[in-house]
Design brief:
There is one protein chain. It contains five helices and seven strands. It is α+β, with helices and mostly antiparallel strands. Strand 3 and strand 4 form a beta hairpin. The longest helix is centred in the first third of the chain and has 20 residues. It is elongated, with a radius of gyration of 20 Å.
Length: 169
């Protein structure tokens, strides 16, 4: 029997994709610190859930490209972490910027990120015989029937009913 579930996300969803590409394998002294810094940031964020990281998935696109899909509580919490002077991210980013300005990273290691703030009604998920993963790991997992059997039903789901306008006159 196949167990089908969906994510129990409510409201907007904040997703950050962040990663690196090793352009020169032999430049280990340049790309390894970038990779290790990301792992440390994830470890620190796990210890401080109040910062707003709900879940993350580490992935690889090739032997050269590694990235993390992160699910955040809100764009405000993501921005607050990214700009917090006491967070390790601030130190790591400053170090990376110094190397970049000095021309030490050019062509050796690539870095990138993309952030998406997805309004309710613009995402849906289905998991067949899967533990909580991705969006469901971040927001909880519920039986598929609670949101609808078809994608169109899950897209149409709203966590709160819009107020009904009162008739006057």
């Amino acid at each position: 029997m196949v167990t089908r579930t969906t994510a129990d996300a409510k409201g907007e969803v904040v997703v950050l994709l962040i990663g690196m590409r090793i352009n020169r394998f032999w430049a280990v002294h340049l790309w390894l610190p970038v990779m290790l810094a990301m792992l440390r940031m994830l470890r620190d964020l796990r210890k401080e859930p109040e910062r707003g990281l709900l879940s993350r998935v580490l992935l690889t696109a090739s032997p050269r490209t590694y990235y993390v899909v992160q699910y955040w509580e809100s764009k405000e919490k993501l921005y607050a972490y990214a700009t917090a002077p006491e967070a390790f991210h601030h130190k790591a980013w400053a170090r990376l910027n110094r190397k970049e300005r000095a021309g030490k990273l050019r062509g050796q290691v690539g870095i990138w990120h993309e952030t998406y703030v997805v309004p309710e009604g613009s995402y849906e998920a289905i998991y067949g015989d899967m533990p909580a993963f991705g969006l469901a790991a971040a927001h909880g997992q519920i039986p598929l029937e609670k949101r609808g059997r078809y994608a169109k039903d899950r897209f149409a789901h709203r966590s709160q009913q819009a107020p009904v306008a009162e008739k006057t006159g």
